[in-house]
Design brief:
It contains three helices and nine strands. It is α+β, with helices and mostly antiparallel strands. The protein is elongated, with a radius of gyration of 16 Å. It starts with a strand and ends with a strand.
Length: about 140
Amino acid sequence: MRDAVYDSGGLEILTEEECRRLIDAVPLGRIVFTDRALPAIQPVNFLMANGEVIIRTSSGSKLAAAARNAVVAFEVDEFDPAIRTGWSVVIVGHSRIVSENGELSELRGLPLRTWAPTAQDHFIAITPELISGRRLPKAA
């Protein structure tokens, strides 16, 4: 167990191992991508599989078009306003549309069911290149 390390704002800096554990603890995240040269953020449900963030979307979505071979950010968090604590993890990496049949078959078998009412038949995979996280410690 390591001693906690804090940034200049007093937030605890999480290790990559802690970040990966926390990512698996929540079902919903936010993908940050570029849409017509502007930043866009969209909430998505996701799973981690083979070390990648997997998102299911429709083929005609802005997300599917914008996330094709692009650098994106993906953020997950959890906060408790009653006790003023929480954490946030950010992944930055390249995204890709999954198109290889073997990989598609594997992803279709995952328990990743979209919350959106329309057909979601495309998969986006984000390969993490940077993973960082911060925790807001409990107030004294």
